[in-house]
Amino acid sequence: MTIVITGTSSGIGFVLAEYFGKNGHQVFGLSRKNVESPYFTTIPTDITMAEAVEKAVQEVLSKSGRIDVLINNAGMGMVGPVEDSSKEEILKLFNLNLVGAVQMMSAVLPIMRGQRSGKIINISSIGSEMGLPFRGFYSASKSALDKVTEAIRYEISPWNIDACTLHLGDIKTNIAENRVKTNVSEPYRTTFDKVYALMNSHVDQGTEPLEVARYIEKLLASNRWKAHFYFGKFGQKIGVPLKWMLPQNMYENLMRKYNSLDKA
Question: Average pLDDT for residues 40-53, to the nearest whole number?
């Protein structure tokens, strides 16, 4: 298979690209940084720029002649109080997490239609299913990607093309180093510091990225796709059905406890 993966300069994307390359697939990694690897080809690309995306996809076609799989992995985290987040920070986040992913899908879909086959995996987060404290805009950006994926599934199904979102829990990567950290005003400082330390500890104790690669490998081998798949530790995945089942106030109290938040 020819697989295109975005955000391959580090973290999950790099591990995915090397894993599938080692397993005999032709892998192209799209990232702003050029990364040398014997297992995949890097095409330096800023996926927020439509022209750069089109150029990268054409380069893949010139070398492979087809695109079987797109994994939209590129994204960024953002932490801070909703009140303190600036318009510029919010737009930058959505431009990458949502618009960049949409531009990638738009670029590969004409190719997949011509093939009458293709699969798209949009990497989302378990946190997209709920508004996480001090990660409200990150949750919102991933939730928006979820809804776009749900919509596009209907639109592309006549050509035997499928798409899904893969909601990840905490994965052990360097994401904490690359998050956008907004201003934190005094009223939130003590609470934020406590929650921020907790979220970083969850990442440190997270699932290894290699396990994500193995899960995606099984997903690609399956013909039974649905809109949403969830991967992570049980304590994180269980938060999704609990939100559906529990009364809202009870669920919010559980979330406060999980995030070590005191009710005002």
Answer: 98
